[in-house]
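Might I ask for a little of your time on a matter of protein folding? Here, with my thanks, is the record as I have it:
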Amino acid sequence: MSVLTARRGDMCYCPGCSHGMVLEQLGAAIDGLGLPPERVCIVSDIGCIGTADRYFSCHTFHGLHGRSITYAEGIKRARPEMLVVVLIGDGGCGIGTAHLIHAARRCADIKVIVCNNFNFGMTGGQHSATTPITALTTTTPNGAPDHPFDLCTTVGVNGAAYAARHSVFDDAMVENFHRALTCPGFVLVDVWELCTAYFVPANKLSRGSLEEYSTKLGLPFGVLRQGSPGDGAAEPVDAPRAAPKRERGAEWSAAPTLAWPGRREICVAGSAGQRIRSAVGVIGEIAVGCGLYAAQQDDFPITVRRGFSLSNLIVACTPIRYTSLDDADLVVVLSPDGLERLGSLAGLLPTSLVVAAEGIAVGDTPARVRVLPLKTVEKRVGKESAALAALTCALPAAGLADAGELRAAADALVGGSYRQTNLAAIAAGLELAAEAAPAAATGQ
């Protein structure tokens, strides 16, 4: 079964557009690799070629204009065993030039296929970074004044392992794609095409004209760069890397563990400037370091340019496929602003726990409610660390984490310039949890 699910005539492209040819050639090359579809990811950009993902029966990801290269590198870092292919137009390469250059410099192991038809075909035929000099477009009616962007030379001098330029009408395009897809490291193939809606009519372009353009512009066809991955650049992203060095407690000689009761949803609400997002991020990183899965989502700030006011965290023992909160197991409310942003808590379950700073009326809710002496916390660790201390205090109270395991995991995993500050906040939160436990047990 082919990875390509549509015939050229059934695709959404204009009659005579070359995009369908590229997809057929690329599909045949991928089929020739014999990879199962779950081992392949097509990352598409905005533009006419951005519609291509619907025609492939493998993983696909559709992103923003010019940003597909960054998404692809992220996917490859997370799933290094996958073949990650970018389908991007000349418009996307112009908009995302910095991403293109730095992915080549890092020798990211992604394969970038540029469907280059010399103009922005989806939005009206405007000139792009690769429009040939003197070419006519809707924004250069008297001829383009600038020399076109040489994609292959640019990525080549910045460390790409492979760079090639071909006409879409090259009879060996399937073999060309196969060679590119099997080359380790950063790969770019600049495929020159025909845009029959705009560029072809305005410039009387034809199949033979592509060869003429190549000669006139000094941009030859063929394989222009082929070296070892990282030759003149950084190592490929899937190469083994040394583990980052972190300060560890003397008692730790093995990876820490943190028992966790399945998928649990946590929400922390406060005011901008309370470092809500940072606090949730520290706990999420600890969870991941202990072999758990974590997903964090942050709301827009209440006060512009000062920080986030609402942060959600999901921690689970299995991969997280759904990242929204339905029934939060733990809600930490640190300010009236945060409660207003959060809204009513009437929909929480009786098994949920709400930890609210003293003086905040959370309203009617079936959830259990505990009061947090926030001012006491702030005196112990400072206002900027109070959110992390409060969240740490709430985790054992909600039955989500063992205090001893959490303390040990934090000591082993928390790093960076704020290590000591964050560890002090975590320690204060756990101490507060231990102090509050007897009162909670007696119902006081």
